[in-house]
Fold each of these.
Amino acid sequence: MRAYLPAYEMETPRDLAAALQRMAAEPGVWRAFAGGTDLMVLLEAGKLPHRKFLNIWNLAELRGIAVSSEHVTLGALTTYAEVQRHEILAREFPLLCRAAAETGSVATQNRGTLGGNIANASPAADSPPALIVYGAEIEIVAAGGARWVPYASFHSGYKQMNLRAGELIRAIRMARPRGAAWKQYFRKVGTRRAQAISKICFAAAGRVESGRIADVRIALASVAPAVLRAVRAEELLRGRRAADVYLRAAQDALSAEIAPIDDMRSTARYRRHVARNLLAEFVEVLAG
Ligand SMILES: Cc1cc2nc3c(=O)[nH]c(=O)nc-3n(C[C@H](O)[C@H](O)[C@H](O)COP(=O)(O)OP(=O)(O)OC[C@H]3O[C@@H](n4cnc5c(N)ncnc54)[C@H](O)[C@@H]3O)c2cc1C
């Protein structure tokens, strides 16, 4: 059994300002350590060049779930367990709760955070498709100030993101739904039903009015270098009668916009096939 733990430094800043100042003083040197569920795996495997970590776990400014009439705002340190326990999230953002419930084990759900899931930038992460469907925005803070960015444009390629040295994710914000209810659909497909990294993760929502798909959003993980919104497939569904969609065309569009690969968990062919099937199942949900 492997038991390798290199020497490392860990500091616990007293508040967010102190953390940001530490990062600004030595850009790129100090790395945020939240739940540690991704970092500990890399550290122990000897795959983490970083040796200096800021323990942000106790930063109150990154905690809590705030609800206003317009938004639900989750601190970056919100854990999967906290997501699942929240009544308004369960009612209004069920895709995120499903993703949280299907992430890792109970231990990982108690410790793993949404901010960590986003900043780890894995194309196979499970919460990003739900965040894209809900049009989430993320707040990024640095010693010099704060900015909000749409989450859909945050990842620009494999492990690439709009986060500079010295910046932290402070919060994730989602607009509360208004008007007619959206039909929502989530499927994570892995080797097992629990404790498996996704072969493919599919989250989607659609609003059907008088039998027509008035609006639709579809996002997938594990099928491209970064989590992806399937805009071309969406275009072929929007405005159609839900019971009468030209499914094959939408599936072909989806197939063309994803770029799955063969890896240790699955094959490109299988992922493409399953993506098409999940789209068909989602369309059935819209029609039903
Ligand atoms: C056994 C196991 C099972 C898992 N199963 C799943 C799964 O099913 N689905 C899934 O998606 N993931 C899974 N994961 C991955 C992991 O649990 C998640 O990605 C988790 O959300 C990471 O959060 P964390 O707080 O532990 O991040 P950490 O490990 O603390 O950090 C991860 C990265 O994010 C950065 N970071 C953390 N917080 C911030 C912040 N606020 N601002 C800027 N950067 C930050 C860190 O510097 C680091 O680069 C699994 C992990 C393990 C060990």
Amino acid sequence: MKYVVCVPDGCADEPVGELGGRTPLEVASMPTLARLAARGEVGRAAVIPPGLPAGSDVGNMSIFGYDPASYHTGRAPIEAAALGLRLAPDQVAYRCNLVTVGADGTMVDFSGGHPSSDDGRKLIEALDADLGGDGLEFHPGVEYRHIVVAPADWADAECTPPHDLTDKPAVWPTGPAAPRLQQVMDASRDIVSAFGLAANQVWLWGQGFQPQMPSFASQYGLDAALCSAVDLVRGLGVLTGIEVIDVDGMTAGYDTDYDAQRECALDALADGADLFVVHVEATDEAGHAGDAGAKVAALEAWDRRILADLVPGLDRLGPWRLLFLPDHATPLELKTHTDEPVPYLLVDSRVDGPGGTYTEAGVADAAPVPGHELMGRLTAVR
Ligand SMILES: [Zn+2]
């Protein structure tokens, strides 16, 4: 038995005026998905447990079959894992954005004008040289997204994600560790500004200790692999022993090579993996941009370039089961994530289910099931 988990990030939505009161899933032409839904089981998954942020870290942790209420400590340690960092028990990781804060204290750009990864690395190295030491470490990541590792007693603070502050007054940290965080952010201004880029300081947030997640193999008894261009998803793979595969042409944008991601899944399964997770970011990107056309196009690419050839490819490998769901909704008209339950589809190549329609309205009457239980449902049949 082979298992595939398909994650169109943030694909769930709400009725959109621009789409005639329909959702992208209702508008997109997805004939293969419709066929699978007609012979599978559709329902609603609560991928974001109550009280947790509606982030890709939480939602994907659910999809991977781990209850975020038990295992989620913050997003930074997951991204740190993607960079190959292992945290000691007395270390906390912070996400360190390069941001642009205006002279009047407005968060002008949470992504600091999208510096190149090369510029970002130079900046982070300069910060580490000037401000690092005594357990404080700056680690370069990608573009504006970096990691700070600090002693455990730096963890106790309330921090605001910078992308929630765009064009609003910056909300500085509060809590016992806030003065130390503030000191680092204040001290970063001279160093960052000296580079003459759009970014003019760092922003620390999303902190957490290393989550103690049992391996996927020990939890589910299966060898798993994944492909994703997103650090949070790759970090979850590192933390759970799921093999993280790089794919040429895979990106976190609209231009990802869907065909290459599909072939990566089929090749890994043919080579012995039992389960494969295909994660594509494009739908979430479109949701944040409020771009209805791009979101519909990304869904149609999922169907035409992944599912249409994935299904016959799986048939050639033997019996299979497939789970399709996003990690959260990213409604076009809100341009941000929500914690609403999302539609899921579970299909078994050998046994027909009740059948249904894979849309938000198609599952509106279903009682939500905890998202982290679906991995157990998927893999229960061997
Ligand atoms: Zn997401």
